[in-house]
Amino acid sequence: MKLRKFAAALGMILFLLGAVCLPGAEAPAWAMVQDQSPDYSQAQNWLYLPKTTDQKVDVFWVYPTVYDGKATVAEVNDPQMRAGAEGTLAAQASVFAGQANLFAPLYRQANISVLSMEQAQKDRYLRAGLGDVQAAFDYYLQNLNQGRPFILAGHSQGSKLLTAFARKNLQRPDLQKKMVAAYLLGWSITKQDLAQYPFLHICRSAAQTGCIVTYNSVAAGYQKKAPTILPGAISVNPLSWTTDDKLVPASQNLGAVFFDDQGKSQTLSHFTSAQNKDGGLVVAPKDTKLLTQMSFGPGVYHCYDYSLFYENLKVNIAQRIKAYQGGAAK
């Protein structure tokens, strides 16, 4: 999918945030969603399944909002949603290439029109995606995982769904033992989450395992403009992999990677510094003209959470896998 179209589609996450961003036709009043999740034993209900599992670690990828059609909830075989989701494999999930076997389920996404519905009906529509992610993971774990450790990863709405999944599931000792880490970018893990779910842990060093990486990229002073930064949000700096508020200079940025409309990429070293501040990750890109997709307005670099730190993410994924395989303490 073209990056421009992908980034614009990311604005659809606002249906989960209680804000209206995208205009569009109302969904038909008769549009309904079935309670039953797709059958994940069928390959067509997966965005991506690896042909071989030659890596010793898996990554379970949940893509951000890409559906902008008229139905209240997109079916998993919706061609527009699938095309959009495929674009995230190149622009974001490719950071795991060569390090983990990629498993990416399709799931039902709600149209922004759901916001105008009564609460009971709204809840029914919005929980479809979480139910699908749960069903897909359960099938993956029982039939496809073959005992390998795994990484959870997503962005934006995908990270929101995986956060809800983590709250529900990561108290299980078997999953705690097998999870290398979770990269839940473009959404917030809060201090309240850690207090209410003590089995959730934030990554505070580069080689820590069994923990969650979370951050939201913004310009200085724009933290309150980012609807993905929730009260009490914790941020992990992807240039230091700590949660302190020290400014890490751009010299530590191994490379931002940007994808053009044809899927070609360019890598720019030392592109931005990074600093955890007021729940957000404050960045100072050297060339803001390259950052044209602003779903949440100027200064909120939500669409570039992966791109700005792409090479550092690649290195860190390798670090955490090595630490896990070496039996490092979680």
Which segments are poorly predicted (pLDDT under 50) over 5 or more consecutive residues? Answer: 1-32
Rg of Cα set: 19 Å
Number of strands: 13
Task: Tell me about the largest β-sheet.
Answer: 6 strands, mixed
Count of DSSP-assigned helices? 8
What structural class should be given to the helix and strand makeup? alpha/beta
Gap between N and C termini? 37 Å
How many domains make up the 3D coordinates?
1
Mean pLDDT: 87
Strand order of the largest sheet: 1-3-2-4-5-7
Helix content: 25-40%
In what range is the share of β-strand residues?
15-25%
Q: So what's the overall shape? A: globular
Q: What is the chains' assembly state? A: single chain
Helix and strand sequence: HHEEHEHEHHEEHEEEEEEEH
Keywords:
3-stranded mixed β-sheet, disordered N terminus, single chain, 6-stranded mixed β-sheet, 330 residues
Describe this structure in words.
- The protein is α/β, with parallel strands linked by helices.
- It has one domain.
- Helix content is 28%, strand content 15%.
- Strand 12 and strand 13 form a beta hairpin.
- 47% of the residues are buried.
- The model is unreliable at 1-32 (pLDDT under 50).
Short description:
By secondary structure, this protein is α/β, with parallel strands linked by helices. The longest helix is centred in the middle third of the chain and has 26 residues.
Map the helices and strands.
Blueprint: H1 3-10, H2 14-17, E1 46-48, E2 58-62, H3 79-91, E3 101-105, H4 119-144, E4 150-155, H5 157-169, H6 173-178, E5 179-185, E6 189-190, H7 191-196, E7 211-213, E8 217-218, E9 233-234, E10 256-259, E11 265-268, E12 274-277, E13 280-283, H8 310-325
Helix pairs in contact: 1-3, 4-5
